[in-house]
Amino acid sequence: MLSINNIEVVYDNVILVLKGVSLEVQAGAITTLLGANGAGKTTTLKAISGVLGTERGSVTKGSIVFDDKRIDGMRPFDVTKLGVSQVFEGRRVFEHLTTEENLVAGGHVQRDGRKIGSGIERVYSYFPLLKERRQQLSGYLSGGEQQMLAIGRALMSEPKVMLLDEPSLGLAPMLVEEIFGIVQRLVAQESLSVLLVEQNAVMALAVAQHGYVMETGRIVLEGSVQKLRDNSDIREFYLGLNEVGSRKSYRDVKHYKRRKRWLS
User: Fold this and answer.
1) How many Cβ atoms from other residues are within 10 Å of residue 232's Cβ?
2) I want to staple 204 with a disulfide (CB 3.0 to 4.6 A). Which of 4, 28, 32, 83 is the partner?
3) Where are any strands of DSSP class E within the chain?
C-alpha cells in the first residue's frame, strides 16, 4: 500500500534528520513506528504527507511510493487527494470553527457536496459524541473530543492510509483505549491502513500487526508485534520490564547503551 525506500530528509539544506529510512505500511492493518523524542518519527510522517516544505525540509534521497505512484515531492493537497491523510500531534483543530465546520474543512478534496454530507454522518456513526457537539466551537471541546474530531476530520477525505501522530498524547487511559478501539474498527470496517507513531508502546503493540523502532533517524528494529514484544531491548526500554519481569524506569537507561546494543 505504502512504502518508504531508503529516504533521507534534510532541513535548511544542512541538517540531516532521516538517514536512509525504509518501511512499509501493510494494507488493511496497523503498522506502528516507535522511538524516543527526536528520533525522526514525525519527520517520517511529514515526508509522506508532503508538508516538509513548510518547515524548510525536503526528501533528498530515496522514494516514497503509494499505490505504485511516487508521492515524494508532491503537494500536500495532491497527496491527500490520492488517499493519504495525516492526523497531527497535538490535534490542531480549528478552534474558532464549530465541530461540524472542522469536518467540512476536512472534506476539502471532495467535489461532490453530497459526499461531504454523507461523510459527516459517517464520522458521527463512529464518534456519536461529536454529533452532540456539532455546533460547539472546537476550542471548547475536551482533549479527547478534539482527538476524535481530528481523526474524524481526516476521515472526511476518504483516505486509504491514515498517518496517526501520538493520538494518546495528554489523554486519560480510558479515553486512549476508546480512541484506539475506534481506530481498530476503522481498519476493520473501512479497509483503512494506518501508520501509527506512538510513545505508548504498550498500547501501540497491542493494536498493531507490524512495527518498526527508530533511533536518531534510522530504523534499528523491525518485525511482527509479537517479535518486538519478545525482544529483550523492547521489553526493557519501551515496556519497562527487565529480564526477570520487574519494572524499570526508562529514565535510568543510558541512551548510548541502547544504541550500542541495537546497532551492533
Assistant:
1) 11
2) 32
3) 2-11, 15-25, 30-34, 57-66, 69-70, 84-87, 161-165, 193-197, 210-215, 218-224
At 223, list the grid cell.
518485525
Over range 99-112, report the average pLDDT.
89
Contact 160, 192 (CB under 8 A): yes
- The 10s digit of each residue's pLDDT in 145-193 is 999 999 999 999 999 999 999 998 888 888 899 999 999 999 999 889 9
Strand pairing report for 30-34 and 210-215? parallel
* Single pTM value for the model: 0.88
Other beta carbons less than 10 A from residue 114's beta carbon: 8
Q: Distance (Å, rounded) from C-alpha 258 to C-alpha 130?
A: 42
Q: Give me the residues paired with residue 218 across strands.
A: 215
